[in-house]
Amino acid sequence: MKPWPGIENADEVPSPALLLDEARIDANIASMLRIAGDPGRLRPHLKTHKLPQLVRRQVAVGITKAKVATIAEAEMAAVHGVRDVLLSLQPVGPNAARLVRLLALFPQVRFSAVVDDVAVVAQLAKRVAESGVERVLGVFVDLDIGQHRTGVAPGPGAVAVVEEIRRHAELQFRGLHAYDGHLGITDLTARTTACDAGYAAVEALRQQLEAGGISVGAIIAGGSPTFPIHARRSGVELSPGTTVFWDAGYGTKLPDLPFEPAAFLITRVVSRPAPDCLCLDLGHKAVSAEMAPPRAVFPSLPDAEAVSHSEEHLVIRTARAAEFQIGDVLYAIPWHVCPTVALHQEAWLVREGKAVERWTVEARARRITV
């Protein structure tokens, strides 16, 4: 990873805070475009950044499609110029009605959802019919190709879901969704082999459906780890998310990918509990803690080791602890950037080494208006 010098005006930024390097974001988006070959192939996942400013930045370079995880993210995407929005979490309960409401509010936007259950298909069709909106809702069948989190295995179950979608005039079968986020394998050859094996089942299903006269409009495949692998396939939409910011986790596990960290955390020393320890104001509420340590890495302290982590505090052990005074600034790269962004109400944009403006992380909210 390239060194990051920090910001000149750190004394103006309270800690902990999220810093976003503009030049690195633009470079990462350019790398996404280069790998995809055509902005029309990209359907980036907005769950990573949740920011209107970055939606507009992606639209400005020709990216008109997006994938989202929440209704709030879907609304944000529609407001800021995305014209084809896919909800990648099967809508159930009141969220189904909220999604249908977006159909009425944004007639210029094509909305779709993933499904893996015939009963959910029928419920969605009923919601659209009862709403009175004179539009159809797009539907992608969510396939389980190895992660075993959501989706139906490619085969008879998936065919049954497709057939149920086609029974309802309120819905349009738009294609297949195949996410393989479990393939964060460091060795590129092994990652490619596993990715190709998972995709083979998707391709077999596509051929089966089309042999039966059912057109598969699109296949949305992969996440950030397998993005360049799927990019080599023709006719596949690509939906990386973390690539816009990158993080220490993927940077460590996936050194072959050409992205650089663009999201940093500013933190300060708030105490020195031991001669070889520093206590920082970088607790659970500032950096994602859902994974085992490290929750963040410190480029200037490569030997830093987490001792304890709580709501507002992170204690690290380092041989250089004696060099720091209370109040000194450190910068950290989050291990997992997506949930870290969601912890912050605002982010500071860094331009030419200075924090120049604050951006509200709008879609961290569960509801915007709908």
Task: Describe this structure in a few short sentences.
By secondary structure, the chain is of the alpha/beta class. It is 30% helix and 24% strand. The protein has 2 domains: 10-17 and 259-363, D-serine dehydratase-like domain (Lyase, Ornithine Decarboxylase, Chain A, domain 1, Beta Barrel); 22-244, Alpha-Beta Barrel (TIM Barrel), CATH 3.20.20.10.
Structure description:
It is a single chain. The protein has 370 residues and is of the alpha/beta class. The chain folds into two domains: 10-17 and 259-363, Lyase, Ornithine Decarboxylase, Chain A, domain 1; 22-244, Alanine racemase (TIM Barrel, Alpha-Beta Barrel), CATH 3.20.20. 30% of the residues lie in helices and 24% in strands. The protein is built from ten helices and 16 strands. Strands 1, 9, 10, 11, 12, 13, 14, 15 and 16 form a nine-stranded mixed sheet that branches. Helix 4 packs across helix 5 and helix 5 (118-131) packs parallel to helix 6 (156-166). The two termini are 41 Å apart. The model has no long low-confidence stretch (mean pLDDT 97).
Q: What's the assembly state of these chains?
A: single chain
CATH superfamily of the largest domain: Alanine racemase
End-to-end distance, in Å?
A: 41 Å
Residue stretches low in confidence (pLDDT < 50, at least 5 long) are none
Number of helices: 10
Sheet having the most strands: 9 strands, mixed
Helix content: 25-40%
Average pLDDT, all residues: 97
Cα-atom radius of gyration? 22 Å
Which shape, going by the Cα principal axes? globular
How many β strands by DSSP?
Answer: 16
Determine the strand fraction and express it as a percent band: 15-25%
Number of domains: 2
The run of helices and strands is EHHEHEHEHEHEHEHEHEEEEEEHEE
> What is the CATH domain class of the largest domain?
Alpha Beta
Q: Kindly report the CATH topology of the largest domain.
A: TIM Barrel
CATH architecture of the largest domain: Alpha-Beta Barrel
Which structural class should the secondary elements be placed in? alpha/beta
